[in-house]
Specification:
By secondary structure, this protein is α/β, with parallel strands linked by helices. It is built from 11 helices and 12 strands. α1 packs parallel to α11.
């Protein structure tokens, strides 16, 4: 039976449509080669629609999106829309409403991609960050009191339930078993490192560390480590080879994955998946809308293409996902740079090259 998937396309704003167009080109090439049927439906959510109609994510659209196998997103954010409206009303709302509680961000340096770290190459930069994607500071609980006075108080609370911590860590242990360095035949053990700040956020890490040990006992094949988030930043630069699978809470994950992204060639290449293992997941390049490069056919589509590969792998078409990754690895050595406008090729040409390599 032919595999068949229904994909919602959310090109969004800025360079989102340009990179998603190339991502779709590559998905179509992979679908043809592996006999997969992809049914794609376009949605015009984003800044333009908001400015035109005042709508960010209508309930009816949210309900429709729940019926898809996956969502493929370009970028969210518009120069004429106040920061926060689209990010919170669209991107974060989708993550929360669809309960995409995992943000999976592989950190992989492709061949010949320029890396700002001295003496580090593809062998050293090859790990995955599992970012908790539903709680923490992103819960949005807080407020201002006595605003405008010298006694003004701002509160923003970091919140985690046992359930949120447990499901995130369980996913991470499962992921480490299946995709850790031993499982991939490039190391002698699968390691899961919990990243936190147990020396200051004592309540938070009392919970995370306890559950980490508790769930970890069920996974004797996964070696456990713990690092503070500040030290983690240092290690990610000085010795990235020590990481295999890393799990961390939402805000720390947001921050360290931008650092991770630059070590793998930048936002032009870093892809991520917002995953609900039991529901609808959403895949996106982790860079933004790049307003400066919009409409110039100069932006790097590889992050979007990589997100498409993750989407297929997560849906179960692993062979097709791996083939796209292989095609990206064939393309990067031909490029001058991963930076917009410096690639030596246009956005369209890079898409063609990856599709052709398939
Ligand atoms: C990301 C982004 C988002 C986040 C913003 C746009 C809300 O930085 O996906 O990493 O903070 O999660
Ligand atoms: Mn971010």
């Amino acid at each position: 039976m032919k595999e068949s998937y229904k994909i919602a396309l959310l090109p969004g704003d800025g360079t989102g449509p340009e990179v998603l167009r190339e991502g779709c080109k590559v998905l179509d090439a992979a679908a043809a080669r592996f006999d997969i049927k992809l049914e794609k439906v376009d949605y015009d959510l984003g800044g333009e629609r908001y400015l035109r109609t005042g709508e960010v994510l209508p309930d009816s659209v949210l309900e429709e999106l729940k019926e898809f196998d996956a969502i493929y997103l370009g970028a969210v954010g518009h120069v004429d829309v106040k920061p926060g409206i689209l990010e919170k009303g669209l991107l974060l709302k989708l993550r929360f409403e669809l309960d995409q509680y995992i943000n999976l961000r592989p950190v992989k340096l492709y061949p010949s991609v320029e890396c700002p770290l001295k003496n580090k190459g593809p062998k050293e930069i090859d790990y995955t960050v599992v970012r908790e994607n539903s709680g923490g500071l992103y819960t949005g609980i807080g407020g201002l009191s006595r605003a405008g006075t010298r006694d003004e108080v701002a509160v923003q609370q970091m919140l985690y339930t046992y359930e949120q911590v447990e499901r995130c860590l369980r996913y991470s242990f499962e992921y480490a078993c299946k995709h850790g360095k031993k499982a991939r035949g490039i190391g002698d053990k699968n390691t899961l490192a919990l990243v936190g700040k147990s020396n200051v956020l004592t309540y938070m890490y009392e919970l995370w560390n306890r559950v980490f040990a508790e769930i970890g006992a069920e996974y004797p094949d996964v070696h456990r480590e713990y690092y503070h988030v500040d030290a983690t930043c240092l290690y990610m630069v000085a010795s990235p080879e020590m990481f295999d699978v890393v799990v961390t809470e939402n805000m720390f994950g947001d921050i360290i994955t931008d650092l991770a992204a630059i070590t793998q060639g930048g936002l032009g290449i870093a892809a991520g998946g917002n995953i609900n293992p039991e529901g609808v997941s959403m895949f996106e390049p982790i860079g933004g809308t790049a307003p400066m490069w919009t409409g110039r056919n100069a932006i790097n589509p590889l992050a979007a293409i990589g997100a498409g590969a993750m989407m297929l792998s997560t849906l179960g078409a692993e062979q097709a996902g791996c083939a796209i990754e292989g095609a990206i690895a064939e393309t990067t050595p031909k490029m001058k740079s991963q930076m917009a406008n410096e690639m030596g090729f246009t956005t369209t040409e890079i898409g063609d090259m990856v599709a052709h390599a398939l």
